[in-house]
Each structure stands twice: as structure tokens, then as C-alpha cells.
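User: Thanks for the earlier help. One more: ABC transporter permease. Can you show the sequence and predicted structure together?

Assistant: Of course, both are below.
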Amino acid sequence: MASARDGNLAKALVDMGQSIKRRELWLYLGWRDVKSQYNRSIIGPFWLTLSMGVMVLGLGVLYSQILNIDVAVYLPKLAIGLIVWGLINGIVIGACRVFISAGSALRQIRLPVSVFVFQFVWGQLISFGHNFLIYIVVALVFAINPGWVVVLIVPAMMIVVLNGFFVSLILGPLCARFRDVPMIVASAMQIVFFMTPIIWSADSMSHRSFLLTANPFYHLIEIIRDPLLGRTGTLENWMVCIGLTLALGVFSTAFFARYRARIVYWS
């Protein structure tokens, strides 16, 4: 039994290694996926940027009045929060269909299974890049100069992307096997959005709630948002995110190794 598990793990690691070697393939396919959503559109994927920008402006002006916060303080935090949430939510929701959508390709073409996960995560990063233009506009309008701490965005993005990849290795096979799970995940993410300080601020809480500190999405957003606003982020934010990445990495690899061979039959 142990040798079988070791064999499955080795095959899973080889699968991911082969996918990395074929990066030209999934880089192209990820870009094609984003582009294909906007065929015959004049501005193409920049519709993502426009729709997100309108939402940021509308919610920023409205809730700054409701919460009685200076719009110059509130809107940048809201903008970054919504942009990062768009990436995280897009990965979590989309991961549920990563193997379902790739079903025909899995059955017809001999490729590493994880290629489709790399392709999917890369496509989400491209969409995030379009939305990130909103932050640049907001930073120029409100004269935000984050300084040297902005370099922390690099390890922060690596952590978020790695977690997204690991979550996809779990949700992809799980949702391919149980088709009710995507609806459950979508409903759960709607609730999590309101429980995460995106529209509201964690500073508005009179005391640090366990529901906040135990919310991994809060920490993932903060390690990106703080450097973009000129702060380093708290040690708690970084430690939780690093611990989450390690735990998810181990669990997702074991999960993928256990069920990798069955994905083609489920998709």
C-alpha cells in the first residue's frame, strides 16, 4: 500500500514537472482562453478593466459617504481589495470547472493532467493584470507613493498564485467527481466576500475577531494591499499566508496524486 502511494506521488510530481517543461503550451492556451471570451469586441479583455473600474468608482464614492470616510483614504483600499478579490474569487470559482471544461481534451490528447491547471491559473493572472491598471490610475489620481515596500508585492503574488494553484489541484478533481460542489463553493464565496474586509475595514472593528484572524482570504488580500499602499503588512498576515501555502501544498499534492488517474473518467 505504501509503495502504491509512493508511486502515485512520483507520477503526480512527474506530471507537474512535465507541465512546467511545456510552459509554451499553457501560456498560449491561457492567453487564448481570455482572448476568446471577447471575440469581435472592440476593446477586448479591457472590458474587464472597464467593468471593474466602474464598480470601484461607484462603490468607493457611495460607501465613503455611508461610512463617513475620506474618499481619498477609502477608495484606494477598496480598489485594491476588489482587484485582489477578483483574482482569488476567479481562481476558486473557476477551479471547480477546470477539468470539466477540459474533459474532451483529456480524453483525446495525451498531455500531463496538470497542464490544464497551469493554463487556468495563467488565464486568471492575465485577467488580474488587466484589472491592475485600475490601481495605477487610482495611485496617480490620489498621489499614492508606496516607496520601496512595493517590492513585497512580488513574494505576495507568488504566495497567492501558489495557493490558487494548490486549490485548483483540489477543487478540480473534487468538482469533476461531485457536480454539486461548484454550486456549494460559489455560495460559500458570496458569504466569504462580506466576511472579508474589502468593502469594510478591519480597523473599524473594536477588537480583533477570531472570525477575522481565522479568515485566510483576509490575510491573502492584506499582503498584497499593504505594500501597494506603502505598508509592509503585519507579521501575522505573512505567517498565516506562508503556513497556509505550505499546508495546502502538501495536502493538494497528496490529493492530486491520489486521484490524478481518475480525473479523465470524471471529466
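User: Great, one quick takeaway?

Assistant: Residues 145 and 230 are 7 Å apart (CA to CA).
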